[in-house]
């Protein structure tokens, strides 16, 4: 019998970042499942498929993932394989990706059967705020997850190796707080542990002054705004910045 709970990690390589103008050229996946002993572990071998993006792959993008036009010219279209990858049997309870907002742009609710997503980037901000950075690969070498086979997670920026590495982050997150909390955090903007720029760059948000904090409340970056609002709520009794309470802000 398959496990009762499975989450599929997905990674896409594309021709660019705009789903209206760009296409998928590779998809990779790796499952994480709840075992009989109550621990989440990697499940199955995972896999990858090249996809015909329906347009040329720009050289600047080829320089990232090294997928060439001739590699994908005979590959299937994304709309022909997306449902098979995103909604296989047995049903997955959620999908996951590092910086999942990117994958979600190319995966419609119809293709994913309306599944909720877990963003391991957003969850890493909450669970491992001491990390020097929060990219998939920095987390890999900073954390050194148990069981990760070094060569199987290479080369970076290819769909299966990236999904494989992300799956280890997801496994450890699930064993720490469970899927419901990860889904809830993923539905919100990212909660940044440190100020990204300006005179207070590198400081924790609870270390900066009121005037500096106020300047971030209208920032163009939604993650910065959300973090500043959350810190303001904490200062007004709304809970700790790393575990914010949901409430309306009265500015």
UniProtKB/TrEMBL annotation:
Fetch the Gene3D superfamilies from UniProt.
Ribonuclease H-like superfamily/Ribonuclease H (3.30.420.10)
Q: Which InterPro entries match?
A: Ribonucl_H (IPR013520), RNaseH-like_sf (IPR012337), RNaseH_sf (IPR036397)
Top-rank lineage group of the source organism = Bacteria
Is Hydrolase set as a keyword in this record?
A: yes
Which SUPFAM superfamilies would you find in this protein's record? Ribonuclease H-like (SSF53098)
What residue ranges are annotated as transmembrane?
Answer: none
Q: Which residues form the Exonuclease domain?
A: 6-179
Q: Which UniProt keywords apply?
A: Exonuclease, Hydrolase, Nuclease
**GO terms (BP aspect):** DNA replication proofreading
Annotated GO molecular function terms are: 3'-5' exonuclease activity; nucleic acid binding
GO cellular component terms given for this protein: cytosol
Protein name (database record): 3'-5' exonuclease
**What is the organism field in this record?**
Sphingomonas gilva
Q: What is the lineage of its organism?
A: Bacteria, Pseudomonadati, Pseudomonadota, Alphaproteobacteria, Sphingomonadales
């Amino acid at each position: 019998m398959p496990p009762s709970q499975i989450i599929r990690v997905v990674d896409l390589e594309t021709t660019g970042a705009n789903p209206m103008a760009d296409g998928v050229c590779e998809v990779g996946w790796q499952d994480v499942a709840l075992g009989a002993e109550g621990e989440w572990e990697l499940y199955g071998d995972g896999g990858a498929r090249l996809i015909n993006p329906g347009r040329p792959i720009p050289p600047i993008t080829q320089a990232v993932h090294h997928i060439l036009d001739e590699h994908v010219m005979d590959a299937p279209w994304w709309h022909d394989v997306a449902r098979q990858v995103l909604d296989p049997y047995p049903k997955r309870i959620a999908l996951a990706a590092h910086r999942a907002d990117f994958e979600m742009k190319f995966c419609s609710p119809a293709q994913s059967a309306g599944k909720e997503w877990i963003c391991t980037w957003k969850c890493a901000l909450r669970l491992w705020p001491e990390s020097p950075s929060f990219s998939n690969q920095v987390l890999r070498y900073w954390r050194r997850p148990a069981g990760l086979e070094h060569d199987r997670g290479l080369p970076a920026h290819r769909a299966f190796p990236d999904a494989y590495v992300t799956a280890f982050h997801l496994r450890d997150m699930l064993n720490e707080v469970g899927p419901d909390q990860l889904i809830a955090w993923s539905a919100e903007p990212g909660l940044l542990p440190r100020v990204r720029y300006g005179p207070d760059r590198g400081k924790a948000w609870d270390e900066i002054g009121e005037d500096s904090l106020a300047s971030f409340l209208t920032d163009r970056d939604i993650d910065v705004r959300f973090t500043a609002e959350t810190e303001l709520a904490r200062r007004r009794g709304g809970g700790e910045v790393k575990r914010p309470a949901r409430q309306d802000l009265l500015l």
